[in-house]
Amino acid sequence: MNRRLLLSAAVAVAATVAGGYTLLGRNKPQPAPAAPAAEDPVAALMQLQLPDLNGATQSLAAWKGQPIVVNFWATWCAPCVKEMPELDALQKKYPQIKFVGIGVDSAANMQKFVEKVQVSYPLWVIGAGAIDTLRKLGNPSGGLPFTIVFNADGSINRKILGEIQPDDLNQTLSGLKA
């Protein structure tokens, strides 16, 4: 009985508070303004200015009109490191497709890493603050590795959370048109 009484009281208070704000016209929720194009996570990623390992600023927008494979990775992520040679082999097999590894890491760690493990595709630095970007792109856990395959028109063809399966990704890439 006490539970019903408490629940009824809580509902009454909530209704009174909500009704009061509405009657007074205060704290009315305002409709959200239309999101500008920059709020679109894919558009934001395409326009993002990121440094490469030499410090030069790069952007995916430079590859507009081409299929792109973006692989988010980190030096401390074992599955990320394991899949890098496989991504490198696929990049060599599909030279018409642009590949980039975006490091959720520091430039210093990445520079040390590439002395041991070299890849032929470019590596850019986004840093540890990338988790929000990953979540907006459809990776709610912010986990790594995270690979996105873009069609030539800039739309997302596929998202892969976790280590790629080379044969599976090969099949996706073979269907992309440059």
From TrEMBL:
| Keyword Metal-binding attached | no
Localization, per the record, is: Cell envelope
Could you identify this protein by its name? Thiol-disulfide oxidoreductase ResA
Q: Which Gene3D superfamilies match?
A: Glutaredoxin (3.40.30.10)
Residue intervals of the Thioredoxin domain? 24-178
Q: Which GO terms describe its biological process?
A: cytochrome complex assembly
| Main location class | other
Pfam families associated with the record: Redoxin
- Which Gene Ontology CC terms are recorded? cell envelope
| InterPro entries associated with the record | Redoxin, Thioredoxin-like_sf, Thioredoxin_CS, Thioredoxin_domain, Thioredoxin_ResA/DsbE_sf
Keywords for this entry?
Answer: Cytochrome c-type biogenesis, Redox-active center
Give GO MF terms, alphabetically.
Answer: disulfide oxidoreductase activity
